[in-house]
Amino acid sequence: MLWFLLVFSFLFPKDPPDKAIQFMLKNVNELRANGCQCNRDWMPPVGPVKWNSTLFKSAYSHAKEMDRYKFFKHFSRKGENIGQRVESFGYDWLVVGENIGMGQDYFLEVLEEWIESESHCKMLMNPNVDEMAVARKGIYWVQHFGKLKDPRLKYRRRN
């Protein structure tokens, strides 16, 4: 039943069902709580992440674009990076990151491949993020991570 929910949930551009979200959060947060070997580097335990619907919309949009135009990159067809793409959905980020995958049938399969890739693994274990979302369209998976700016603080934009 859970596999059906996970597959069904990625057919529509709204948040997946709560069971699917909880399943993905449980697996990512268990990894983060236990620490992880990312290639040669041991990544110590870090705090949990929570689901963010805006990150889901951004992740789904990128997965949908890759599926429609059959490309596999961290940049949009217009050349927009992850920061620019999440901003276009109104996510006012302090920290942002992305994992992408292609061809995996199930979330645990793509998660395992991200763990085996040093850069993807380090993104999963990034202590500076506290939110995430995962989207799938066709054979493409996109995981967005972020940390919102504190609205009480003023930030200077880097050029």
Walkthrough of the structure:
By secondary structure, the chain is α+β, with helices and mostly antiparallel strands. It contains 6 helices and 6 strands; from the N terminus they run H-H-E-E-E-H-H-E-H-H-E-E. The strands form 2 sheets. Strands 3-5-6-4 form a 4-stranded mixed beta sheet. The protein has a two-stranded antiparallel sheet with strand order 1-2. The longest helix is centred in the N-terminal third of the chain and has 17 residues, at 18-34. It is globular, with a radius of gyration of 15 Å.
| Number of alpha- plus pi-helical segments | 6
Largest sheet: 4 strands, mixed
Question: Which bin fits the share of residues in helices?
Answer: 40-55%
The span between the termini is 48 Å
Evaluate the radius of gyration. 15 Å
The amount of beta strand, in percent, is: 15-25%
Total strand segments: 6
Secondary structure layout:
Layout: H1 2-9, H2 18-34, E1 36-38, E2 41-43, E3 50-51, H3 53-69, H4 82-87, E4 93-102, H5 107-116, H6 118-124, E5 131-137, E6 140-148
Parallel strand pairs: 3-5
Antiparallel strand pairs: 1-2, 4-6, 5-6
